[in-house]
Automatic annotation (TrEMBL):
SUPFAM superfamilies: RmlC-like cupins. Signal peptide: none annotated. PANTHER family: PROTEIN VES. This is HutD family protein. It comes from the Bacteria.
Length: 203
């Protein structure tokens, strides 16, 4: 089996304060990398924004995706037009642009460092539905992939090439695929309507 899985529970999350609230670092890769040194390939986090107006930290050579889990926000890049985000609407932008945010929210973030590629999407499941991701159609030039799933409000059952994994709500599943074409499909099921954060990163 050319992949392994890890469920990130609350006790594995690193919490820190920033000027506008708190940040929960859910996962950073490699594990011995450091956010402040910007030596990571990718990082996922969730933050509370308690100030109505805040300025994002400038992150050279980092590409960012952001969505809100609770509350709506407006983003402004380089004094340009406002970009409005409702919960589970995803926006991607370069980390080295001047970015301001307006609104008190709980957000969810993906940061992608140099030499890495990735994307974050929000998926919607209706009650009793089954979502199948065909990974053979999602290959890129990289042989090393990570697939990440986060469901803030509902328990999920994921089937990875026939193997079932239960993911409790508000937990994060990391699937590390270290052999090319080692995964062919992932199925996601929920007993109730829910929104899911889905992330793919590779290098």
């Amino acid at each position: 089996m050319g992949y392994k899985t890890e469920i990130i529970t609350k006790d594995k999350i690193k919490t820190s304060n920033w000027s506008g609230g708190t940040t929960n670092e859910i996962y950073i890769y490699p594990k011995d990398s450091n956010y402040k040194d910007l030596n990571f390939k990718w990082r996922i986090s969730s933050a509370t924004v308690e100030l109505e107006h805040s300025t994002f930290t400038n992150l050279p050579k980092v590409y960012r995706y952001i969505t809100t889990l609770e509350g709506s926000m407006d983003l402004c890049h380089n004094k340009g037009p406002l970009i409005h985000l409702e919960p589970f609407e995803v926006h991607g932008f370069s980390g080295d642009v001047n970015t301001e945010s307006f609104g008190t929210v709980t957000d969810f973030n993906l940061m992608i460092g140099p030499g890495c590629d990735g994307v974050m999407n929000a998926l919607n499941l209706t009650e009793g539905s089954l979502l199948k991701l065909n990974l053979n159609k999602r290959r890129n030039r990289y042989s090393y992939h990570n697939y990440i799933f986060f469901s803030p409000n509902s328990d999920l059952t994921l089937t990875i090439d026939g193997n079932n994994i239960s993911l409790p709500k508000n937990h994060t599943l990391i699937i590390e695929s270290y052999e090319k074409d080692s995964l062919s499909s992932i199925e996601i099921a929920s007993s109730q309507p829910c929104n899911i954060i889905s992330i793919e990163v590779g290098f």
